[in-house]
Amino acid sequence: MIQLPEVIKNAVEALTRLPGVGEKTAFRMVLSMTSWRAQELETVGAALSGLTRLQVCSECGMFADGHRCSVCADDARSSSRTLCVVESASDLLAIEKSGHFRGLYHILGGVLNPLLGVGPDELGLHKLRDRIMDREMEEVILAVNPSVEGDATCAYVKSILPDNLRIERIGFGVPIGGSLEYLDPMTITKALENRKRF
Known about the structure:
Layout: H1 6-15, H2 23-33, H3 38-49, E1 55-56, E2 63-64, H4 70-73, H5 75-78, E3 82-86, H6 89-98, E4 104-107, H7 120-123, H8 125-134, E5 139-143, H9 148-159, E6 166-169, H10 185-193
């Protein structure tokens, strides 16, 4: 059997670290890149290397070019009294893509999970509370995924905030165009719990 050069093996191994990329897919990618010009490979390499200099916003935790992200630096949004709490940067991006929310965000970086050693301190939940109090927020939207850990995280956040603060959880349930017969029981349960007057 033929022995491939170490350069190819190393490139394949590096690409398999990406989510959803197995060894076969990584190998096809590397084989495709072997036909690229040196300048193209160097451009991709430099772009990936640039991730080592990636910064996060000191206020919300989103990726940023500097001290603050584009949302927190936006004068129109920085005066908002509504804060949307999400688990990850990808959740923030999904909400932004909808174009509906015009307030501020706070990224938790996960959910409470005592079995994995993730407690309130690891998520910086007291920093979240301080931010809400310092900025005199009026409304907090908990856009945390529906799971046992997500529910526990939302309950904990609610417990450390004042009672007079308006705290809401995003709705869960039937997706647009979805059919009830194909939905799992948890989705149907959440849809029934989050029903509203028609």
